[in-house]
Design a protein that fits this description.
By secondary structure, the protein is mainly beta. It is about 0% helix and about 55% strand. The strands form 2 sheets. Strands 2, 4, 5, 6, 9, 10 and 11 form a 7-stranded mixed beta sheet that branches. It has a 4-stranded antiparallel beta sheet with strand order 1-3-8-7, with no helix packed on it.
């Protein structure tokens, strides 16, 4: 079956960096679009970043210039490099891989930004 396992979350001070990873199994990874979402307490889940099959990226305005999304098809992994973190970036971060109507979600990883 399809499994997505996120890692790399944790506590970081404002201005710091974190690198999230999402490792996939059970799919032909290179055929899927890879997205990152986040959900803060009391808020809806929101789109953060995506990387297409061809490697093109797209970002929400709130993270543009600070976050970088990339894929490593050889390792079946999608990376979210987060720099210049702000308190408002604190949330549970989820990876989502999809192709057509097939969507798969990871379990989420907590990111806390606090001094």
């Amino acid at each position: 079956q399809v499994q997505l396992v996120e890692s790399g979350g944790g506590l970081v001070q404002p201005g710091g960096s974190l690198r999230l990873s999402c490792a996939a199994s059970g799919i032909i990874f290179s055929n899927y679009v890879l997205d990152w979402y986040r959900q803060a307490p009391g808020k809806q889940r929101e789109f953060i970043a995506s990387v297409t099959v061809g490697g093109s990226t797209n970002y929400a305005d709130s993270v543009k210039g600070r976050f970088t999304c990339s894929r490593d098809n050889a390792k079946n992994t999608v990376i979210l490099q987060m720099n210049s973190l702000k308190p408002e970036d604190a949330a549970v971060y989820y990876c989502n891989v999809w192709r057509g109507s097939d969507h798969y979600w990871g379990q989420g990883t907590q990111v806390t930004v606090s001094s």
